[in-house]
Task: inverse folding
């Protein structure tokens, strides 16, 4: 096989029919409707959804990094930490308790992992990797305009993922980072970001905001979504997995579906909470 085959994805001519053409959009739409429906019900129901998603995500993470060692106790610690941190923030609306819960979860994970001889850093990292984004999502939902902020985040992430999939498969070409993820291409990455920028601008325009100002914001945040996707791809490749799980037909595991959201949620929460920047650009909420 030539170097060209290693460096370039095949594109449109290599596309073949498979069941993912049905299951991926079907389950993607179902999950999106579920998320939007619960989101509209308020902060507390949304926090319960975040907590529920955190349970399988925790077990997937620890299965990835366990290297064939027992991992369920570590996963249970992470799942409990994620759920308690998200729910405490929804009810208490103070980061003090939630951060204390995360700190205790990290400490418990470190002690448990050390005693059991597992990969300490990777196991403990799971608590931070899942709990902080979960808190970010709940914190973003809490204000009155929070529903629109979360939807704007979803628009960027979903458009990035969909655009990258379509452009990467149709165009192919040079691979983005074959060491991290052999399936991702420059065409998919740039195409996904352009589509995300256009989708976000259209969403902001529907809310009577500034579509022109929304374009660069959507593009920039789509790059963060790509980074989140690449990080999870790196972890899977590092430990020899193709997917984080098989819970969601056509998508793989929960982490495979949520990796971009985890990164963008933290970035958006930092902008909103620390810098008081509204992603609803020009919208008078």
Result:
């Amino acid at each position: 096989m030539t170097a060209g085959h290693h460096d370039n994805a095949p594109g449109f001519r290599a596309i073949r029919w498979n069941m993912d053409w049905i299951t991926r959009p079907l389950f993607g739409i179902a999950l999106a409707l579920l998320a939007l429906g619960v989101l509209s019900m308020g902060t507390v129901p949304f926090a319960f959804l975040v907590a529920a998603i955190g349970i399988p995500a925790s077990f997937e993470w620890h299965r990835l990094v366990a290297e064939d060692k027992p991992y369920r106790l570590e996963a249970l610690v992470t799942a409990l930490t994620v759920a308690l941190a998200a729910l405490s923030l929804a009810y208490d609306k103070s980061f003090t308790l939630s951060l204390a819960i995360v700190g205790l979860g990290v400490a418990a994970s470190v002690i448990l992992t050390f005693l059991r001889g597992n990969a300490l850093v990777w196991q403990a990292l799971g608590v931070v990797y899942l709990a902080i984004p979960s808190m970010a999502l709940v914190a973003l939902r809490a204000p009155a305009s929070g529903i629109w902020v979360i939807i704007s985040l979803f628009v960027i992430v979903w458009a990035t993922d969909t655009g990258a999939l379509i452009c990467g498969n149709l165009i192919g070409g040079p691979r983005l980072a074959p060491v991290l993820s052999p399936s991702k291409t420059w065409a998919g990455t740039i195409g996904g970001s352009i589509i995300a920028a256009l989708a976000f601008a259209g969403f902001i325009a529907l809310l009577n905001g500034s579509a022109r100002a929304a374009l660069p914001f959507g593009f920039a945040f789509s790059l963060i979504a790509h980074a989140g996707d690449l990080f999870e791809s790196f972890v899977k490749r590092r430990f020899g997995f193709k997917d984080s799980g098989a819970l969601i037909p056509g998508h793989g595991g929960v982490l495979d579906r949520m990796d971009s959201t985890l990164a963008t949620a933290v970035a958006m929460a930092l902008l909103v909470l620390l810098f008081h920047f509204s992603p609803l650009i020009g919208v008078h909420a």
